[in-house]
C-alpha cells in the first residue's frame, strides 16, 4: 500500500470484454448479484456494476492476500461498506465507463468521479446542494466556467461526505469547499482541521476528488488490469 500515510486510487475501465465481466461476476456474493440483476434493464448498467465491484474485490484481495470471492462486507449507517476481518479503508465511485477505487490504511476515505455532462444548469443544481458561500463563489465565476466550477464543488463535497458516511442531500449545505477553476481545492473551517481534499482529472471529460484524513501525506494513481 506504500505506507500508513499513503493512499492509492485505482482507475478501473468499465468497458471491458465479456470474459472479464464473467470473471468479475463469479467473484460477487449473492446480494451483489441481485443488485447487478436489478440493473439489467438499463443498457450497460449490469456490466458497469459487475466490473466495478469485481475489480474492488480483486484489488482488495491482492492487498490482503485473500481470494476475491472470500471477502465479506458489512455496511455502516448510510450504506457505506467496510471489510469484515480487516482494517483496510476503501471507497468506490463510478460514472459512465470509469470507476475509481481509493484504498488506504490511515482512516476513512471518500472518492467521487463525475462525467462532465454539458448543458447543465449549474445555478439551479447548486441551490439543492451548495452552501450560501459556495453559491456566492459560483455566481462570481465567469459564465463559461460555471459548469466546471459546479463539478469541482460537487465532486469535492461528495468525496468528503462519502469519507465520513453522510448523506449528500442532508449534509451538503452544512459545509463549504472551494470551486473556482484554476485555484487549489480547499475545505472551509472547521473541517479543514480533519480532512484534506485532492482533485484531479482521471480522464478527459471527467472530474474527480479524493478526501483523506489530514494524516495522509501522499497519494498515487494506478490502473487496474483485469
Q: What's a quick, concise take on this entry?
A:
With 226 residues, the chain is an alpha+beta fold.
Word description of this protein:
- The protein is of the alpha+beta class.
- The chain has a domain at 112-216: Ribosomal Protein L22, Chain A (Alpha-Beta Complex), CATH 3.90.470.20.
- 35% of the residues lie in helices and 24% in strands.
- It has 7 helices and 9 strands.
- It has helices at 18-27, 30-37, 45-64, 122-129, 132-140, 146-164, 168-171, and strands at residues 6-13, 73-75, 81-83, 89-95, 98-104, 110-115, 195-200, 206-213, 218-223.
- A 4-stranded mixed sheet has the order 4-5-1-9. Strands 6-8-7 form a 3-stranded antiparallel sheet.
- Helix 2 packs antiparallel against helix 3, helix 4 packs antiparallel against helix 5 and helix 4 (122-129) runs parallel beside helix 6 (146-164).
- The chain is globular.
- The model has no long low-confidence stretch (mean pLDDT 93).
**SS-based structural class?**
alpha+beta
CATH class of the domain at 112-216: Alpha Beta
Strand order of the largest sheet: 4-5-1-9
Biggest sheet overview: 4 strands, mixed
Order of secondary-structure elements: EHHHEEEEEHHHHEEE
Key terms for this structure?
226 residues, alpha+beta, 7 helices, 9 strands, 35% helix
Note the topology.
Elements: E1 6-13, H1 18-27, H2 30-37, H3 45-64, E2 73-75, E3 81-83, E4 89-95, E5 98-104, E6 110-115, H4 122-129, H5 132-140, H6 146-164, H7 168-171, E7 195-200, E8 206-213, E9 218-223
Parallel strand pairs: 1-9
Antiparallel strand pairs: 1-5, 2-3, 4-5, 6-8, 7-8
Helix pairs in contact: 1-3, 2-3, 4-5, 4-6
